[in-house]
Each structure stands twice: as C-alpha cells, then as structure tokens.
Design a protein that fits this description.
The complex is a heterodimer.
Chain A: H1 2-15, H2 22-38, H3 45-68, H4 77-93, H5 99-121, H6 126-146, H7 148-151, E1 166-168, E2 171-173, H8 178-201, H9 203-213, H10 215-220, H11 225-251, H12 261-274, H13 280-300, H14 306-320, H15 325-343
Antiparallel strand pairs in A: 1-2
Helix pairs in contact in A: 3-8, 3-11, 3-12, 3-13, 4-5, 4-6, 4-11, 5-11, 8-9, 8-11, 9-11, 12-13
Chain B: H1 2-33, H2 40-57, H3 62-85, H4 92-114, E1 128-130, E2 138-140, H5 141-163, H6 165-175, H7 177-182, H8 187-209, H9 220-234, H10 239-259, H11 262-279
Antiparallel strand pairs in B: 1-2
Classes of the chains: A mainly alpha, B mainly alpha.
Chain lengths: 344, 291
C-alpha cells in the first residue's frame, strides 16, 4: 500500500524530530478506547443520555467540517441531518424497512437531497452560499411543517421504531437502554469518523483543500471545482443524515423545530470554538462545550442563563482564540516536544 | 372581492413599511462595515421591549417610549461596533459569528428581564380609518403611525446620505473603505454612525409594531429571515434596492398569506430569494460583489 506509506511519512514529517514513535500513539489510542468504553458506567442516567447525544453530535460536526474543507460554510447542515432522520423514520415506520437498513437509506436520502441542492447552491460562493443554504434548509423545514402527510406537520413524526434487540447467544442487548445505544453510536460514529479521516487524507481530500485555497489554479489544471464541492457536500450530508437517523431512532420522534436554525447555530459554534484545521478540532469543540453546558452550568443551576454563557463563550473564543481550541493542542504539543528536546 | 383585494393591499403597505425599516438598517450596517449582523432581529426585539418597559410598565406616552427605544437600541448598536465588530474588521465570518453570540445574550437578557411569556401591549389608539372611503377597507391608526414614521425616517435618511457631507463620507466608506480613509474620512466614525442608525431603525420598527404583534424574546427570528430575503432580492448593499424589495416581498407575502396560508407564503418568499440567488446573485439593484 504505497499510498498509505506516503501519508504516514507525510505525517511523521509534519510532526518533526520530537515526534514519538507508533508505540506512544497506540498506547494513547488504547487509553482513549478504554476511557470511552468505561465512560457510561461513571455517569448518571441523564448524563448517559447526554453522552448518546454527544456521540451523535460528534458525527454531525465532523461531517460538517468536511464541507468546510472546500471553503463553504453551510447553514443547512442540521436540516440535512433532519432529512436523514425523517427519511429513516418514514422508511421504518410507514414502509416497514428494518431499522438498520432504514438508517442507511435515510443517510442515502440525505445525500441525494444534497446532490439535488448542489445544482442551485453551488452556483454561489461564500456569503451567497451561506444565505442560499439557509434558504434551501428553511424551505425543507417548512415543507415538513406544512405537509401532515407524510411528515406529520408541526408536531412531526412520533413512535418511530427503535433499534431491535440484539440476541448474542444468551446475551440480549436492549438498545432502549442509553448505555447500549451509546455503544452502538460509538461504533457507528467511530467507523464514520475514520472514513471521513481517510477521505480527507486521500487524493480527493487534498483536492478539497486545493478547491478551497486555490480554486482558480485548481480549475486551470482541469479540476472541476463544482464537482468537488458537490462531492464534499454529498459525503458530508450522507454522514449528517446518518447522525439524524441515529437520533430519530433513539428519541423516537422528529419534528421541524428540532432541526431549526437555532440548532444550526450550535453546530457552527462547536466547529468555530474547536477549530476546523484538524479533524479533532470540532470534536474538541463539541465535547468541551457540551461538558460546560450540560454538566458545569447545569450543576451551578444557571438553567435560564445557559444561552448567555454560550454566547459569551462564542464571542470570547472568536476574539481571543481565533484559531480554536485545537490551536491549544498544537501549542501544548510544541511545549512538550520542546521540553523533551532540551532534556534529551 | 374588490374589498378583500384592497384590504390586502393596505395590509401589504403596512408590512412593507416595517420590513423596509428593518432591511434598510441591515443593509446600511452591511454596506459600511461589511458585517452580516445576525443579531438584527434581536435589535428589533429590544426595541419592542423598550416599549413594554417604558410605555406599558412605566406608563410614559407611547411616542416617548418609541424615541427611548430608538436611542436605547442605537446605543446597543454602538456597543456592538466597539466591542465586537471593530476588533474583527478584517474577518467577515468572525463578525457574523460574534453577532450570533450577541443574539444569544440579548435573547437571554430578555428572558431574564421579562420572562418567556408573550406580552400583549394595549395599542395607544384603537381608532381605525376607512381607506379609499370604502366601509370594508380599514386601516388601524396604529398601523398608519408605522407607515408615516417609515416614510419620514427613510426620507430623512435618504436626504442625510445624499445631501450632507457626512452622508457622502458614509457612502464613500461603503464603496471603498481604503480609498475613503485616504481621503481623510474616519472609518471608525463612519462605522459608528452606520451602526447607530442601522440599529436604531430596527429598534424603531420593533417599538412601533410592539402593540400590533405579540412581544416575546424570540420574536426576532422570523425578522432576520425576512431581512435576508429582502437584501438578497434587493441586492446586497443597495438601500434603494432594500426599499423596493421590501415592498415587493411584503406584497407577495401578504397576498399569499391571505389567499393561501402563512407557511406557503414563507416558502414562496424563500423560493423567490433562491431564484434571485441563482439567476441574478447581485439582486435587482446590486452593483458589485462585496461578499
């Protein structure tokens, strides 16, 4: 696999002389996995539910980042997530498709809707794309609201079938339990994030960067920027749709307000506060902000004031930490290797 | 049928007035500062709450409350310019994001100060007029206030921008900030003025319509969507375009609402905007590409 070797080499090069060997990475990865598996057993019931939503939101925001690689910021991503949720709900409830298949079908529907939207939307760039994606998303949301059949109107769809119990010999896994659903989401999201990571590292991903930073140059050597923007949009929408399906079959209901621009603002905040230069930036953003929002502020009893803190954090991070939380990781790593270097 | 059509027309004129107030302020801020002020709907909300406090709770005369609302919201605008937009002048996306943060803060403050409950303010006048001398076509006096105030304020703004030296300087900043700075125009001064006027216009719109709508902390949300539609249709950065687009959109929206329903009207408005974006992204009156 020469391609993989090259990518690995490039990464080692980027890390510089102070980089640790693969053993350290493997150990770190093992620790992280163990921590993620152990996590729900240290949480209360309501915190376990928050953990499920958190894992789903990780997929949402990481898929969003793939689109931002091409330089376009959408305000319709949460509606696309909703398309996945609605489609999966309709497939499983009205057409009787088994839930896991319905989820994939929901994700595919989200990708298909994105593909259709790409025709008008990618005639625009920058600010116009932002507004255009917002308008397109609102139209979809209003259609859910307006048409009782098949979307259920303002109250949405209820009693969406949950993921069926899994029989593993003597062991029965009931996905109604937050802990079981957490593990299911963890597996699905980990695989998805890995796929998104590989896409970014591939030739396609490099082209996304080229389309963002050098679109005229890319065009001049025969790269169709329209095609690559569409590709990024469709892939990102597939995984957003998957996250919507995971959400729909867990909470058992979808409605238009669940996917409104207020929710989109949160995705934007996670991505901006975390930073979008690396794949772990948005993950850091969503994890840190969810912990602050759900654990710290809730414990302090500031229930009504939570949006105020969110707004203040957003403003402060733009003003004082414009590169996002991920830049702190880079600085910490530099400090660490610097110290290691002087000691060695 | 004629009566219904005429009545819808009158309703459309009213809708066009307050939408124009909001959209012109939005365009002015974008034109001079290059910032999409996502919190514009919340400035409108703040104007409405100024009336809740000064008029409904403290029982001052209505027009005192409107003036207080304009100044109060204008001052909020100055605060935003100084604390948020000035440090981010070279970062348009950053300006957009901090305005979202500020929107959350304003909403929360309204919730903390007045609760999430909707407030219904008794209109200062219940009087109605018959328009065109027809019995069935009525215009509440309160709505007429909105229309008259809009004509006066936008007329005044137009004269200010066209005739006064400072207005010309403001327009120069909107066209090319660097060249304007080289001519000795203070960009900070221009930004402050644009932000104060733009915010105050949104505040006036909120204050004047407060007795006609239900006032609640999240009332700014549909307003920002309307503002987006109007500036896209009118052409980003064009004040005249914003006024024309406000009239056009208000008419379309009012007629579709009357003859179909509100949700269909919203969808039609958004599709209108998408159509303009696809066919003529610079809008009906847009000149250049500033985004």
């Amino acid at each position: 696999m020469p391609e993989r070797g090259a990518a690995e080499g490039a990464r080692a090069g980027a890390r510089g002389p102070g980089a640790r060997g693969p053993g350290t990475w493997l150990a770190g990865f093992g620790l992280l996995t163990a921590a993620l598996i152990a996590l729900p057993h240290f949480l209360s019931f309501s915190q376990q539910e928050i953990a499920v939503f958190l894992v789903i939101n990780v997929l949402l925001v990481v898929s969003y980042r793939l689109l931002t690689l091409t330089g376009e910021w959408s305000l319709g991503h949460v509606v696309i997530m909703g398309v996945g949720g609605y489609a999966s709900a309709i497939f499983s409830k009205a057409l009787g498709v088994p839930v896991p298949l319905a989820m994939l079908a929901g994700a595919t529907t989200a990708a298909a809707v994105a593909f259709l939207l790409a025709f008008p939307l990618f005639r625009m760039k920058g600010f116009y794309f932002l507004i255009g994606s917002f308008a397109a998303g609102e139209v979809i949301r209003l259609l859910w609201k307006r048409f009782r059949i098949p979307f259920g109107g303002p109250k949405g769809l209820k009693l969406i079938p949950s993921v069926p119990d899994l029989e593993l010999g003597a062991l029965t896994i009931d996905f109604f339990e937050p802990v079981s659903y957490y593990y299911l989401c963890l597996i699905v999201v980990s695989i998805s994030v890995f796929i998104l990571y590989r896409i970014e590292r591939s030739r396609i991903g490099l082209t996304f960067h080229a389309v963002h930073w050098q679109d005229h140059l890319a065009e001049s050597i025969g790269v169709s920027t329209w095609r690559y923007r569409t590709l990024a949009f469709v892939i990102a929408s597939f995984f957003a749709g998957l996250s919507g399906a995971l959400l729909a079959h867990y909470i058992g209901t979808v409605n238009p307000n669940r996917f409104d621009v207020g929710e989109m603002v949160f995705v934007l905040i996670w991505a901006i506060v975390g930073g979008t230069a690396t794949i772990y930036g948005p993950i850091l953003g969503v994890v840190v902000l969810t912990i602050i929002n759900e654990v710290v502020l809730r414990q302090l009893g500031f229930d009504q004031m939570r949006p105020l803190f969110y707004g203040a954090i957003l403003i402060a991070s733009i003003l004082f930490l414009p590169q996002g939380l991920e830049s702190l990781v880079g600085k910490a790593r530099a400090a660490w290797t610097g110290r290691g270097g002087s000691a060695g | 049928m004629t009566e219904l059509l005429l009545q819808t027309l009158v309703n459309g004129v009213y809708a066009a007035s307050y939408m124009a107030l909001i959209a012109v302020g939005f365009v002015l801020i974008f034109g001079v500062m290059g910032v999409i002020n996502f919190a514009h709907g919340e400035l409108y909300m703040a104007g409405a709450y100024a009336v809740v406090f000064v008029y409904a709770e403290q029982e001052f005369p209505f027009f005192v409350a409107v003036a207080a609302g304009a100044i109060f919201v204008g001052l909020i605008g100055l605060l935003m310019e100084r604390a948020l937009f000035r440090p981010l002048r070279d970062n348009p996306l950053g300006g957009l994001i901090v305005s979202i943060g500020f929107l959350l803060i304003l909403q929360t403050l309204a919730v903390l100060g007045f609760g999430v409950r909707m407030e219904h303010i008794p209109p200062p006048t219940q009087q109605t007029l018959n328009v065109f001398g027809i019995e069935g076509v009525i215009l509440p006096l309160q709505r007429l206030y909105v229309i008259v105030a809009t004509v006066l304020l936008l007329g005044g703004l137009w004269a200010f921008l066209r005739r006064s030296k400072f207005g010309v300087a403001l327009r120069a900043c909107a066209q090319d900030p660097e060249a304007a700075a080289l001519q000795g125009i203070s960009i900070n001064q221009a930004a402050r003025t644009a932000m104060f006027i733009g915010a105050a216009l949104a505040g006036v719109a909120g204050a004047l319509t407060a007795p006609l709508v239900r006032t609640h902390p999240f009332m700014g949300h549909p307003v920002i969507i309307t503002a987006f539609i109007i500036i896209i249709v009118g052409g980003i950065g064009s004040l005249e375009g914003a006024v024309v687009a406000a009239v056009l959109y208000a008419m379309v929206h009012t007629f579709v609402t009357t003859f179909f329903d509100g949700v269909i009207a919203d969808i039609v408005g958004l599709l209108l905007m998408l159509l303009v974006l696809v066919i003529r992204p610079t809008g009906l009156f847009g000149i250049g590409d500033r985004a």
